[in-house]
Amino acid sequence: xxxxxxxxxxxxxxxxxxxxxxxxxxxxxxxxxxxxxxxxxxxxxxxxxxxxxxxxxxxxxxxxxxxxxxxxxxxxxxxxxxxxxxxxxxxxxxxxxxxxxxxxxxxxxxxxxxxxxxxxxxxxxxxxxxxxxxxxxxxxxxxxxxxxxxxxxxxxxxxxxxxxxxxxxxxxxxxxxxxxxxxxxxxxxxxxxxxxxxxxxxxxxxxxxxxxxxxxxxxxxxxxxxxxxxxxxxxxx
Length: 237
Prior knowledge:
Number of domains: 1
């Protein structure tokens, strides 16, 4: 796979929303897999406003989202397709790669498989996101294109240090509040949306899902009864 290297100087104004079902089975489309694994995220504790974003179930009680969605939060919840809100807990937080993992109650949806590491680079995929306010919220799926796979030179979510995020460019209907949504292809889920451009309409970036999350033992290690809080850093909003 050829991977380009680019530099994206991203301030917080460019961040989106800062603020199992097996896709390998031909009978299940990426759109269905993305939708049935999708959760809305609500994060409080950073002032009067509630931060929001999207998460995706990758296991019965584990969902991935963007780290900046939950940064600084003292309470996090998720909303399922039926509009029911549940308490969630951040069990993994990486401000460099802008990915966080949430421990959620079981049976909130159908987890999506992750694409194998040896799979070919994708050219297109599907995202599932919500539109509208709380009372008239709807969940939609949208097709996105992947023009190129890139190593993005940027900063951590706090703008403190330089980092490189392996991932890909995305073009499609990505809006504020869609941070954390997963790009799902025919072979499985591949990356988490972490930024959209404020200069080029429909352009965004996704970071590859870390390889550790493909391991059942690693996912199981995050589901623990130990009352240890993950440091979510300062608020961004």
